[in-house]
Amino acid sequence: MAVFVPVRWVAPLLYGVVLVGGLYYAVADLGDGPGPTAWWRTAGFVAVLGALFALEAMGGRRPAARLPLLLARCALIGAVVVLDASGLSQVLFVLLPFTAYFAFGRTTALALGALCLAGLLTVYVLTAPGWYRDLEHVSDLLMLTVGLVLALSMAAVAVGEQRARREVEEYAARVAELSAATERNRLARDIHDSLGHHLTAMSVQLEMASDFRALDPDAAQRALNEARRSVRLALGDVRQSVRALRDEAARPSLSVELAGLAEDSATPPRVTVEVSGDENAYGAAELTALYRAAQEGVTNARRHARASRVTVVVCLEREAARMVVTDDGLGFAPEAAAGGFGLVGMRERVQLVAGSVDIESGPGAGTRLTVTVPRGKT
Asked: Model pTM greater than 0.90?
């Protein structure tokens, strides 16, 4: 059971009121008159109240200390009531169910409140016959009842507020954790889709430069130039990612980005791009998902499929955008490659915009990647 913290100022305030009232009663000789017994009784009254102040200062958030503190509070309040000649200290009984509500819950607090009323009635029955006709006794009983109701109500409100605050804090922690996980996944997708694509291109171009260095220096030089170009593009993607992290990213242009894929065709495979429709009707998230999917398809065709030709066809219609990436490469078994980082990141990115991914391929049959993205809010 969760342990809640009592309202700290309530108990010390009541102790202070009772202390001032009891001392005033003794100093003003409102009791049986001065004498050694009266002064010793007042000294004991002050000492026990001091012990109650010290008990409140100790706190008691540890579950193991809840019951001993409650029992100690009961004993000390009982001693104060016996030593107090003014009778004002009876109000301290409301603290028992009040503090119990925080430590043990509503049921225990209500039971203690009922026991306090039953105890006072028992004392009246045994010591004051006909008490129900005495205005002072009836008034004391009614005031205790009202005090118990108010104390339990205050405790219920305080516990409800603390419980709500804890739930909000736990929810905020879960949201922060999920946000961090989402951001990690997004960064992983961006690194794979952007830098991974350009590094793959550089690897192929540098291999060509190495292979043709002696046989065809001109071809080797062209491959090196393409590698340098890929480096510049990779740096551009890094800057774009940094701008995105700073919320400064510009709206992507799908046709321009896809044209960049076609320009990379100096090394196999040859990429052709066809875009139809109005991309201004689509949001940045949808356009980015389409571009990254196309980039993944071209990268896989270059890295794994040994394709000579890749075709990217995008149709931006009124309700949804459909992109088809086909290559004439070696093909593969889609179910065997479903766990690759590239395909997983592509599916995650497309699913974030409520789209779908379909892959048709087989050994020796090339690959056909179809991505469908519904039109969202621009």
From this structure: no
